[in-house]
């Protein structure tokens, strides 16, 4: 995950996902996420769009989400369904 400064409507996050599919075939997906707003310290994003997909059938756009600090070097991403994922900063 790469976070960058952006104006509303600009790309604020680039996310790369990779690994094996359920049938063991590898996949790699790259997503870009646009900034909608910053509200009370939270970053509100639009849905993600796929910019690179291999194989194409393994990558789907994501829903809008909210990014919040979750302690030192941690970030919590919460989707519109209230499911959250916490990311740790790599060194």
Task: Annotate the secondary structure layout.
Elements: E1 2-3, E2 11-20, E3 26-39, E4 42-54, E5 65-69, E6 74-79, E7 84-88
Antiparallel strand pairs: 1-2, 2-3, 3-4, 4-5, 5-6, 6-7
Uncertain ranges: none
Q: Please tell me what the overall shape is.
A: globular
Q: Count up the helices.
A: 0
Distance between the termini: 13 Å
Brief description of this entry?
With 91 residues, this protein is an all-beta fold. It contains no helices and 7 strands.
Word description of this protein:
- The chain has 91 residues and is an all-beta fold.
- It has one domain.
- It is 0% helix and 60% strand.
- The protein has no helices and 7 strands.
- The protein has a 7-stranded antiparallel sheet with strand order 1-2-3-4-5-6-7, with no helix packed on it.
- Strand 2 (11-20) and strand 3 form a beta hairpin.
Q: Keywords, please?
A:
about 90 residues, single chain, seven-stranded antiparallel beta sheet, globular, mainly beta
């Amino acid at each position: 995950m790469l976070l960058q400064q952006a104006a509303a409507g600009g790309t604020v996050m680039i996310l790369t996902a990779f690994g094996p599919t359920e049938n063991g075939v590898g996949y790699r997906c790259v997503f870009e996420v646009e900034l909608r707003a910053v509200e009370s310290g939270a970053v509100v994003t639009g849905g993600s769009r796929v910019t690179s997909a291999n194989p194409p059938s393994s990558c789907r756009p994501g829903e809008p989400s909210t990014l919040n600090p979750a302690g030192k070097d941690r970030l919590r991403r919460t989707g519109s369904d209230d499911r959250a994922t916490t990311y740790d900063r790599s060194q």
